[in-house]
Amino acid sequence: METLTVLYDARCLPCRHIRAWLEQEPAYVRLVFIPAGSEDARRRFPQLDHAATLTELTVISDAGDVYAAERGWLMCLWALRAYRAWSLTLGSPALMPTARRFITWISQNRWRLGQAEFLASCADGETGQACQIGD
Amino acid sequence: MEIIVITYLLYLAISVLLTIWVARTLFKNGRIFLVDVFHGNESLADSVNHLLVVGFYLVNLVYVSLALKLGYEVESWRAGIEALSWKIGLVLLVLGVMHFFNLLVFTRIRRSSLLPYVPPPVPPTAQTAVREG
Fold first, then answer.
1. In sequence order, what DSSP letters do the residues of B8-24 get, joined into one string?
2. Which residues of A, range 13-42, sit inside 8 Å of B by Cβ?
3. Distance between CA atoms of A95 and A73, rounded to whole angstroms?
4. CA of A86: which chain B residue's CA is closest?
5. What is the pLDDT along chain A (135 residues), one digit of tens a residue?
6. How far apart are CA B49 and CA B123, in angstroms?
7. Partners of residue A88 in chain B, C-beta under 8 Å
8. Extended beta strands in chain A, E state
């Protein structure tokens, strides 16, 4: 496996920050980020349910293996040099249910988390992308 | 010669021999671990093995030396043997702990050296066609 394509929700702030962080981490496998539901995504993966990729993180290998939701998260960790051992621990039968609940919560609440981040950064008087409504 | 002096000399002889025995076991069998961890680089494995064994000797012989003193008088042979047994027991305990600690360290090192080859932790949820972008 040489590349993992990550279909992420480009509308949400925390998602964009996580993408930026993932991109700069040293990795065993290259991570390619494409906004979910975009033209590029539809062209590359014509058979995929693109509506579903907007609600949960979807990671696809170059062989066409699709990892959705918490499996997608674990694959992102697995790709990183510093976090591969973590992905094995969290993906173990003992910890998987807990990891799944945590990841599902974050995923479902990403708008609320994004709003909190938006309000916090604008309250500080920060200008720029974080404060642009409807971005 | 006093009983306590004989006890001390026996303690030192037995402890040193036990330490040498455990160290040689680790040296001989640990080498295979290290050659695997260093992907066949035998001279590197031998070098690291030697360094680890020196460390092992240092820690254990330090303990043996510091733990020698009885702190009370030994009046009879029985008391001498009891004191000897107690001290040797502690030495064996420390050697045992060090031995398992070494094994733990070797296992951790080997596991992290295999990380680049480890497969994904979860199976895929589905399959899809990929078209070149």
1. HHHHHHHHHHHHHHHHH
2. 28, 40
3. 14
4. B121
5. 889 999 998 888 888 888 999 999 999 999 999 999 899 999 999 998 888 888 889 999 999 999 998 899 999 999 999 999 999 988 888 888 888 888 888 888 877 777 777 666 665 555 544 444 443
6. 38
7. 118, 121
8. 3-8, 30-35, 58-61, 65-68
The answer to whether B117 contacts chain A (CB < 8 Å) is no
Dist CA B24 CA B58 (whole Å): 14
Rounded to a whole number of angstroms, the distance from the CA of A12 to the nearest CA of chain B is 24
Check residues B37 and A40 and name the one with the higher pLDDT: A40
Domain ranges across chain A: 3-126
Residue A122's pLDDT is what? Answer: 61
Rg of chain A in Å (alpha carbons) = 15
Q: Give the SS3 label for residue B122.
A: coil
Smallest CA–CA distance, residue A88 to chain B, in Å, is 5
